[in-house]
Each structure stands twice: as structure tokens, then as C-alpha cells.
Amino acid sequence: MLDERTTTREDGGPSHDGPPSAADHGGRDRPVALVLGASRGLGFLIAQELGRRGHDLAVVARSADGLEAARGDLEATGATVLTLPADLASRPSAEPVVETAVTQLGRLDVVVANAGIIQVAPVRALTAQDVADAHDAIFWSAVYPVMAAVDVMRRRGGGRVIVISSIGGKIPTPRLLPYTAAKFATVGFAESLRTEAGRDGISVTTVVPGLMRTGSTRNALVGGDRERELRWFTTLASLPLLSMDAGAAARRIVAGGLAGRPEVVLTPAAKVGLRVHGIAPGLTKRALALVDRLLPAPGDEPPEPGHTLPEQPWWQRMLTTLDRGAAVRHHELDDETPRR
Predict the structure, then answer these.
(1) d(CA 71, CA 114)
(2) In a 10 Å sphere around its CB, with 0-12 CB exposed, 13-18 middle and 19+ buried, how is residue 319 labelled?
(3) Structural domain of residue 222, as residue ranges?
(4) Which of 71, 82, 110, 186, CA to CA, is 20 to 30 A from 48?
(5) CA distance 30 to 23
(6) What was the pLDDT predicted at 149?
(7) Taking the alpha carbons of 90, 254, 43, 245 in that order, is the dihedral positive or negative?
(8) Exposed, middle or buried: residue 124 (CB in 10 Å: 0-12, 13-18, 19+)?
(9) Angle formed by the axes of helices 177-197 and 141-156, to 10°?
(10) pLDDT for residue 240
(11) CA distance 319 to 303
(12) Is residue 174 included in any domain, yes or no?
């Protein structure tokens, strides 16, 4: 069941405790964006950017507390904010968020599929259930609400769908097997949907980010030799030459999605990787197999959230200053992944 919570702006319009109607928007016909996985990290920043661009927001995540923690920053953009705690991996929970957003906010113009998890671990520390969990949290959490949203947009005469994938959805990446498999499936879904949705005035943008400084590494599920796996992952996510500021990424994602671009690729490293893999896929696979040999020796501890592990040594904390600062700004500490 959905837990609906709303606020209205202090713009002279009616004030009440219940959800706003279209008339409560002061006669303004503001576009509405539904952002999935919006309580923290990149999803939160995308919702914030859409709010700044004049959209009212329906934001979805599993944690009601996480959504409430992000609400104030989203309201500060001037948006009406509807929070919808829901498990998007469950079809009976996922599909109603679309209907509720339309009912309460009066329309639906944009949907952003960003919900997901990431498991950083060698294959020997993983099970088939870990792969299934990743598909539930990434693939099905996009498919169920997006398909429902497309039905609404078709009746309205158009809209924008933005699907957040990853460079891991284009190029196989060591120590990220469940994530990569789910992201590959998500890319296929988004690209196939675009081939047919255009006739109904619906654009579908596939977003392919490289590493970003979102602060989400502390909520990654880390397995194998957990401390060493987390160490390399957080270091790469903090290096300016390899990773991208998440706020800048959100601005480019929203701009590309609202413009109806078919694909948005973020970070120079991701762009180079895609070109090389497209020309010589065998070469990139061999190179990535060599990268795997440089990573920590595979352990077999099952994945657990990074924030449950012992504090990193001082030199590691220095290397990851940017990522840890992003975690505070982007509400990663307010909506932590629970221990499994």
C-alpha cells in the first residue's frame, strides 16, 4: 500500500493537509515528473534538477523516512512534492505509483527510472539469488512503473521517459556481475521501447553514466574480501579524473531527457570505453579480465552494505574525501541500505 504525503507551496494558494488537486496549483499548468529511486544519490539530484526546471514532483523510494529526509531540499526548488514509499520490484506496489501521481498532481509528463542496488563482489561470493535480487531492484523496478507510465502518456499524447543505466549496461565489468546483467537488460528494454514509443509522441532516453561521485558507495553491497573490495571501489568513485560530479551529471541527464535525446553518455572514460568496445569487443573483454587480476584476491564473504564495515584507514579516508562529502549532501546517510 502506498503512503501518500504531500505539501503545497506558499504561493497564495489553498493550504490543507490532504493531497493537492490541479486547482490548488494557483491556476498554473506545471509539468509533473515521477522520479523512481529519489530518496538519495543520483535520483535525488535528478528530482531536484527537475524541480528547479519548474516540474512538480512525485518521488518514490522504499524508505518513507528517506523520502522525508529529502523532501525539504526538493520543496526548496518551488515544487509541490508527493512522496510515495513503495517497493518497485513488486508489480502490485509499483504500478499504483503512476496512477497516484496522476490523480494527485493532475498529469504526468516525465518518468525517470533510477531505482536500483549495486553489489560489488567476485563471482565466488555471489549466488543466483544475488543476480535475481539485482534484476528485481534494477530491471523490474524500471519495467513495471515505466510500462504503466507509457500507457498514461499515450493517452495524453506524449511524454518523456528517462532510463538510468550504466557503463556496466554496455560493457561487462569485473566484480559487478549482478549489476551488469541487470543493467544490460535495462538498456535492452529502454532501447527497444524507444523504437515503438515515438509514434505516440513518447521519447525514451537511455542514460549511460560512468563513475559518479554520488556518495552511494557506502550503501553498496560489498562481498568477497569486503574491506579491500570497498577500498578500491570507493577510491575509483572519488578520483576526479575518473569520476564525475553527480550534480553536473544530473543537469546533463535532465537536459538530454527533456530534449528527447536517444542516449546520454556521461564521463570521458565511458565515452572512450564505448567506442573501443564497439570496434574491438574482444580486446576490451581481455583487458577487463586483466583488470580483474589486479583487483583483490577473490574472497567468499556474502555481500553486506558498505556502511556496516569497519572504518577505513586515514589514508583511505583522505583519498575518498569527495565521495564522503557527496554522501552527506545527497542524503546517503539518511537512507542507508539495511544489513541483509
Answers:
(1) 17
(2) middle
(3) 5-329
(4) 186
(5) 11
(6) 98
(7) positive
(8) exposed
(9) 10
(10) 87
(11) 23
(12) yes
Of 304, 336, 305, 307, the closest CA to residue 320 belongs to 307
The one-letter amino acid code at 283 reads L
At 324, the amino acid letter reads R
CA dist., res. 275 & res. 281, Å (int): 10
Q: Rounded to whole angstroms, how far apart are CA atoms 135 and 268?
A: 28
- pLDDT for 137 equals 97
Residue at 286 is within a domain: yes
Indicate the pTM of the whole model.
Answer: 0.90
Return the CATH number at 28: 3.40.50.720
User: What amino acid is encoded at 223 in this protein?
Assistant: G
Count: domains in the chain: 1
Cell of 198: 515515438
- At CB < 8 A and 24+ separation, what contacts does 276-285 make? 277/170, 277/171, 284/171, 285/172
What nine digits make up the cell of 197? 514509443
CB 229 within 8 A of CB 120: yes
Q: What's residue 29's pLDDT?
A: 84
State the residue for C-alpha cell 513503495.
86
Helix axes 41-52, 246-258, angle to 10 degrees: 60
One of 44, 139, 140, 179 is an active-site residue; which one?
179
pLDDT on residue 10: 32
pLDDT of residue 312: 87
Nearest to 212 by CA among 42, 39, 40: 42
Residue 179 annotated to the active site: yes
Instruction: State how far the alpha carbon of 256 is from the alpha carbons of 249, 282, 290, in Å.
Output: 11, 31, 34
Which cell numbers in the block locate residue 114?
Answer: 533510477
Q: Low-confidence residues of the chain, pLDDT below 50?
A: 1, 3-28
For the record, the C-alpha cell of 192 comes out as 527497444
215 contacts 325 by C-beta, under 8 angstroms: yes
In a domain, 208, yes or no: yes
Give residue for cell 530518496: 39
What residue has cell string 496512477?
99
Question: What would the DSSP string read from start to end of 56-112?
Answer: EEEEEES-HHHHHHHHHHHHTTT--EEEEE--TTSHHHHHHHHHHHHHHHS---EEE
